[in-house]
Structure formats: C-alpha cells, structure tokens
Specification:
alpha/beta, Aspartate Aminotransferase, domain 2, 2 domains, four-stranded antiparallel beta sheet, 12 helices, 40% helix, globular
Length: 346
Amino acid sequence: MYPREEILSALADARALRYDPDPRGMPAAREAVSGYYAARSVQADSSRIILTASTSEAYAYLFKLLTNPGDEVLVPRPSYPLFEYLAAMESVIVRQYALRYDGVWHIDFAALENLAGPRSRALVVVNPNNPTGSFLKREEWTRLAEWAAERELAILSDEVFSDFPFASDAERISSVAGAAEVPVFAMSGLSKVAGLPQMKLGWIVANGPGHEAALDGLEWIADTFLSVATPVQLALQRLLAATGTIRDQIRSRTKANLQSAQETLGPASPCQILNAEGGWYIVIQVPRTRSEEEWALGLLRDADVLVQPGFFYDFETEAFLIVSLLTPPLVFQEGMRRISEFAIMA
C-alpha cells in the first residue's frame, strides 16, 4: 500500500507556484539524493549530482555528453532492450558485450577485450541486470574499471534495481557512485526506488577523472531542457523518506514469489529458474521443443499466462521466458503452476 497522505502532502508545497529553475536540480533535492546514498554507505556529494526527468533521459544526456554521431557505446547482452532506441536517437551505435551463465552470471571479459574499437566512448553496466538479476562483484568491478581506464572509456552504471537484492552478499557492489578510478556516472530514480514512475525524477552521480568538466557539460545540456518539474523536486526528500515502506513491500513480494517459483519449478520440472540475485524478474529456461515466441503465445492462449520471450532482451540462444516477480502472490503461484503444467504437456 502506498502512503497516500504522505505522498500527497509532500506535493502540496506553495513554493511550487514559483519558477526558479536550477539546471543541476534544486540544492535541497540534490541533498536528498546525497542522503539516499549516505544511508547506503555510499559517498555521493550533492555537488556531483544532476537531476533528470528519468533514467532514460539520463542516458540521453550522457550520450550527448560523451559521444558524437557514429561513436559507439558498449552495452550488456542480455539486458533491457531500450538501449538501442536511446542510442539511435543520439546517432550512436550500440555494440553488445556478452554476459555468460554457468550457474551465476558474469561478464565475458574475453569477448569484451575484442569489442572496444577506436570509436568506443562508454560502457554500460546494469547493476543488478535486468532481467538476469545479477549484481557486479568486487573482483569483476576492479577488472572492468582497469580495462575501461586503459581504453579511456566512461562507465555508465544503471542502478535502478540496486535496492532490491534477494539476499546479502559482501562480494556484490550495489553502487559505483563513489568510485574514483575511472569516469563513472551512476543513475537511478524514483521510478524504481520509490515505485513512483509517474513522478518523473531521476539522477546522475558523476565521479572519477574529469568529473568536474563532465558536470559542467551535463549542466549545459540540462539547462537546455529544464525538464524536472518543481513540485517533485520540492517533495523529493519527503518522498524518499515516505516510500521506504514501498521498497520493503516490493522486497517482501519479490522474495516470496521467487521462493514460490522455486518450489513449483523444482528439480523434477522441465523448467529451470536461472540464478537471480535481485531485481523484479526471473529468467526461466524452458525446453527447446518450441520457439520462445511459441512458448509465450501458447501460454497466453492456452493457459492465460503472460510472459515475455527471451529475445525481447537479446538472449543469444533459446529458449528463455521472463516473468515479473511483482505479480500479486496468489496470482503468481497460479501462474507458476500453469507454466509447469504447460511445460509438462509440451
């Protein structure tokens, strides 16, 4: 349940009637973002923060800042399919580096070594990844940062799901906002952090070599658009405080649904749930007795179950299905049961 009164009262601020824009975002709002990181033991001074209307806009700002038309950005595969569209609108070319699965997901560094070219400008990590739910590990980050620094690549870290791990792990990195060894730009926002996509507020935290000049460039870009609304900036500190219960509810539901899926699709099932460490989704590997499209359409037509095929997320091979863990538990349990029965009949 949303804390309706707290959210609505936070937006009822008379100062919203005055227009006094700050291209980086209002100082109090940036301090609220800094406090959000401090509560997670991550140092992110408000002077290193730029507010945006969304994480998607944050990507657009960073592509404008870091690339020229025809330059390249390296993005993970599998991952969220929006990258190609965002890059195309900036006349930027996407090159995909592989994530490999051997019981856990990890970056295929051997493939990555040969991917960066003379026009590569940045590398995107999604931490945890959507839809695989895999977090960056400390050893992995060290190697990635050294590799990017050698090739003068910036790292763009999409951390919108970092508040939603399924369990603790000291080897994981939840944010690179405090990293200083390579140019980094950590992104997140209210859409996932507070479960409030309609509020339209995200942010970029810049750090590492050259971040002061990068922030100046981002300020110039932001000043051109001035897209973040005043009411949500004024409300941000209260929204972040009030929606802690929302994050708790999401974590509780996703963990419970993950456990339910594991119990339903156990060792005897022809379906396998790939290891996930966090986020809002699970990946289910199903028998290659039919294509992913046939699986998705068959489940919808014959079992009234909605899933997404793996090719939506650029899985290199078949057959994988993506299932949301946000579904109400009773509905989710029934959906898992139907997927299991459908797989057995297949």
